[in-house]
Amino acid sequence: MATLRSDAEVRQDVSEALTCDVRIDASRISIDVVRQVVHLHGVVTSYFEKRVAGDLVRRIKGVRDVVNELRVVPRRPRSDAEIFADIRAALARDVWIDERRIEVRVVDGIVDLSGSVDTYTAKTSADADAWSVPGVVDVVDHIEVNPPIIRTDTEIANAVRADIDHNIRVNPQKITVAVTNGVVYLRGTVESLEQKWLAEEVSWWTAGVRDVVNQLQVEPTAFAQGGSS
Q1: Which domains does the chain have, with CATH numbers?
Q2: In 3-state terms, what secondary structure has residue 227?
Q3: What CA–CA distance (Å, rounded) separates 28 from 61?
Q4: Per-residue pLDDT tens digits for 93-152
């Protein structure tokens, strides 16, 4: 018969995953699980570590969502000017980015990125360049995607629908796709948090998309268990 995973089981798996990952110091991370939603609290030394922890938990079976409230406290505080200079240098080195189109502000270690790019690849690359810099406490990405390819909302919706059906093992009737002025709205239900973020990723890679609003809900996960009656 099928049974839902308990919060205790999910918490155990999350704890083991964080402890075993060499990129993370799990000694100062606390975990709460409520109805399969994982809340991460505590302190890490870099924004990279915070991102890795959140991404790792999202891939664990039974997790319906992740609330990442980890605080970043760098081992060695750096000035905003140092952080700014390193980010600008990283953007200048990145082959995917025209750094002249991206503005960077740093206040108390919090990085604000703005401007416009042609592709989702450039947006995510700029984001990664920023959060990989030592001393960064948080990254707020306001970069807009303005695709050079102009497509109608109907064309975009049909392409996103086809890509989702091709790439994600999910009942297509459970996901609806609507597009308004190049912005994709995903609604419905999926079986895992991984499917939710994969649907968003697939949508972003579709030509003509300017933004994605992911309103998909994760259904409680059930696992089959054997036994005799």
Answers
A1: 8-72 (3.30.1340.30), 80-145 (3.30.1340.30), 153-219 (3.30.1340.30)
A2: coil
A3: 23
A4: 999 999 999 999 999 999 999 999 999 989 999 999 999 999 999 999 999 999 988 899
